[in-house]
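DM between two lab members

TW: hey, do you still have the PepSY domain-containing protein entry open?
JB: yeah, one sec
JB: this one, 107 aa:
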Amino acid sequence: MKNPRTRIHSVQFAILLLIPAFGFVGCNQSNPGNWDQATVQSKLQEKMKLESLELVPASGGLTGSGTDAEGQTYKITVTQDPAAKELSYVAEGDRGATEEGSIAGGY
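TW: and the structure you got?
JB:
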């Protein structure tokens, strides 16, 4: 029979090995303030229901343009705040539409 302490240490070790596999440690996916460019682009395109979206790095975040299903083109500015676990965006359409919003942690 194994020593109970050895069994506990074995379980703790197994848990420590599994945590990174499930993304619990340092998981940037749950922190929009740390999302990489591709993730921001994908999530924002989904949120704004854009047919296309192209973002590039800019001072303090990302900037670019996207087009919706009706053909309206938006100029988009994205800022990210890792401490607040949030990204915010402003989108100005070429036909006068304006959208401001944010995505917070736990999205």
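TW: got it. The chain has a mean pLDDT of 83. The first strand starts at residue 50 and ends at 58.
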